[in-house]
């Protein structure tokens, strides 16, 4: 295995698509989506068996972790996945290439998430997920956009669509036809709360109501 896995991309024979909750009040699922006709273009190194085994050479191993981080970010951006269950991801095509019968081990997958965390690209939702043999079903955020970026994206949409001083339900903000072209369409409810919290602190929004009846007014 070399430190350069190559820039070319090849499509996988199996695919995943995001599962969308039927209503805003339904808790966001961390399940890996079911197959569909939409195909994620897996990179060529995904079909290289040594990619799934931790490399001993430090330089090569760092390159390997970087490639795994890039793959996870690209995969989640493609399917608009905001958080992952480590256990479920290990059984999915993301970490398990059935074509070459190679799978990333739980220990190595955890190391990848820790690497992404140090790079500011992941965050454990359960701190138990950091311990070996603990929190096997732990969930982590995947920051293909960080919270600040999400807040900025929502603020830009508010400006561009003249939504200032308008009251919207959180459902309308993420599930309506008006936001279908936006990356925050179908956003995880917990992540939306984080992004709106930043706008509230900046004096650009006010959130009111309770649970699934919440609304937001932008300034």
UniProtKB/TrEMBL annotation:
Any single Gene Ontology cellular-component annotation: ESCRT II complex
Swiss-Prot/TrEMBL keywords: Cytoplasm, Protein transport, Transport
GO biological process: macroautophagy; protein transport to vacuole involved in ubiquitin-dependent protein catabolic process via the multivesicular body sorting pathway
Top-level lineage group: Eukaryota
MF terms in GO: protein homodimerization activity; structural molecule activity
Cellular compartments annotated: Cytoplasm
Similarity comment: family membership: Belongs to the VPS25 family.
Protein name as annotated: Vacuolar protein-sorting-associated protein 25
Source organism (scientific name): Rhynchosporium graminicola
Lineage, broadest ranks: Eukaryota, Fungi, Dikarya, Ascomycota, Pezizomycotina
């Amino acid at each position: 295995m070399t430190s350069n896995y190559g820039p070319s991309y090849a499509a996988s024979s199996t695919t995943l698509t995001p599962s969308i909750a039927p209503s805003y009040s339904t808790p966001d699922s961390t399940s890996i989506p079911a197959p569909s006709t939409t195909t994620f273009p897996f990179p060529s190194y995904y079909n290289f068996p040594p990619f799934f085994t931790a490399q001993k050479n430090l330089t090569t191993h760092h390159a390997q972790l970087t490639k795994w981080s890039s793959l996870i970010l690209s995969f989640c951006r493609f399917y608009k996945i905001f958080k992952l269950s480590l256990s479920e991801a290990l059984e999915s095509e993301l970490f398990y290439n059935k074509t070459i019968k190679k799978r990333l081990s739980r220990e190595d997958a955890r190391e990848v998430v820790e690497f992404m965390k140090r790079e500011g690209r992941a965050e454990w939702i359960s701190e138990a997920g950091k311990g070996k043999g603990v929190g096997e079903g732990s969930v982590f955020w995947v920051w293909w956009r960080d919270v600040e970026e999400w807040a900025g994206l929502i603020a830009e949409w508010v400006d561009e669509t003249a939504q200032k001083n308008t009251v919207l339900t959180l459902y309308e903000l993420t599930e309506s036809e008006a936001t279908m072209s936006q990356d925050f369409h179908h956003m995880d409810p917990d992540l939306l709360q984080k992004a709106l919290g930043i706008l509230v602190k900046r004096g650009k929004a006010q959130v009111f109501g309770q649970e699934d009846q919440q609304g937001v007014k932008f300034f």
